[in-house]
Amino acid sequence: MILLFFLVLPLMAFSQTIRVSPELEQKLGIKLMTVKLERVQEEIKLPSKVSEYSAFSAEVYPPVSGIVKKLFVKEGDRVRKGSPLALVYSPHIADLQAQIRMARVKLKTAKDTLTREEMLYKEEVIPYARYYSAKIEYERAKGEYEALLASLRSFGEVVGDSLMIRSPISGYVVEQKVLTGSGVDPSKEMFKIHSHEKLWVYAYATPESAIRIKKGMKGYVLWQGHKIPGVVDYVSHEVDQNTKRVPVRLLVNNLGGLLRPGLMTETVIVLGSTVGVWLPAEAVQRIGDADVVFVKAPAEFEVRKVRTIREEAGKVLVDGLKEGDRVAVSGIIFLKSQVTK
């Protein structure tokens, strides 16, 4: 019975009315605003952090072992796709070049032999078996030579006995892990390059808010007076145990390069459109766990529960009111005191 009383009490509070005479209303300075509904975007503002976009990041490794002969960039430099990063001397490349030179000589010899044997065969000086043997030797030499060339080309741009390492993307050299003379191999990262044309922004929503956020929704990041547009591409299925919030990720076009990884920002996600009304912030009062307004009736004020959609520059966007309702927007301290006393 006691539990039922406490459950019913809040409902009774929001259905109550407050009688105020015209004289008292004037004395208290209560002013009214007539509700005019409008369709507005429903948005939610969340704390957020800028992060790298993995698809626009690259780690640079050498395809062969060797020694850094020359560096063309340093950490912090901006590079374009294809820009030279380093020249790496490779004993393997040097050995391969030597093999190619030997194979080229062998191929030329085999070709000369085949030309001579073919002429002798046509003049019926030698048997077909001898001509065929020369042809087989030429094809073998040609195959070996072409295989060595293909192997050399597979390493990329070869300069003499060295290999030119170029940037796979445009961006910034965020890490330089080698110096001139450093030994490198295919397992050792040389550079890390990030492009900031696109970035991920992780916003952190309460579990209640996260339910309403869907992949594909539009939003924007607030930074230094700018609104940088983005799209939700992931909503986590888990609650972060440290923050007790749900990570929501947006992919953002970093227009003008305003954002940088690591920045703490605010992100607004557009949940859709709704019908509501903008009221002065003082018109919406918090009583218990609900937001309420005071709606004018013929000889009294009704305490009306509303839902706050968002706050902006001293105003509050709410729904729960009807077109033509008259809401108290000032002088309402007395009205609130009558509800809470």
Entry keywords:
OB fold (Dihydrolipoamide Acetyltransferase, E2P), disordered N terminus, 5-stranded antiparallel β-sheet, Elongation Factor Tu (Ef-tu), domain 3, 27% helix, single chain, 22 strands, Helix Hairpins, alpha+beta, 3 domains, 6 helices, 341 residues, 6-stranded antiparallel beta barrel
Describe the structure.
This protein is of the alpha+beta class. It has three domains: 185 residues, Efflux pump adaptor protein, beta barrel domain (Elongation Factor Tu (Ef-tu), domain 3, Beta Barrel); 62 residues, OB fold (Dihydrolipoamide Acetyltransferase, E2P) (Beta Barrel), CATH 2.40.50; 64 residues, Helix hairpin bin (Helix Hairpins, Orthogonal Bundle). It contains six helices and 22 strands. The strands form four sheets. The protein has a six-stranded antiparallel beta barrel. It has a five-stranded antiparallel sheet with strand order 8-9-7-5-11. Keywords: Transport. One of its GO terms (molecular function) is transmembrane transporter activity. Belongs to the membrane fusion protein (MFP) (TC 8.A.1) family. Pfam families: Beta-barrel_RND_2 (PF25954), BSH_CzcB (PF25973), CzcB_C (PF25975).
Count up the domains: 3
What are the low-pLDDT stretches, counting only 5+ consecutive residues below 50? Answer: 1-13
The CATH homologous superfamily of the largest domain is termed Efflux pump adaptor protein, beta barrel domain
Number of helices: 6
- Biggest beta sheet summary: 6 strands, antiparallel, barrel
% residues in beta strands? 35-45%
Judged by helices, strands and strand pairing, the structural class is alpha+beta
Return Rg in Å: 38 Å
Q: Give the topology string: H per helix, E per strand.
A: HEHEEEEEEHHEEEEEEHEEEEEEEEEH
What's the total number of strands?
22
- CATH architectural category of the largest domain: Beta Barrel
**Between the first and last Cα atoms, what is the distance in angstroms?**
23 Å
Gross morphology is rod-shaped
The whole-number mean of residue pLDDT values reads 91
Percent of residues in helices: 25-40%
CATH class of the largest domain: Mainly Beta
Q: Strand sequence of the main sheet, in spatial order?
A: 3-13-16-15-14-17
Keywords: Transport
GO cellular component, one term: membrane
Family: Belongs to the membrane fusion protein (MFP) (TC 8.A.1) family.
Protein name: Membrane fusion protein, cobalt-zinc-cadmium efflux system
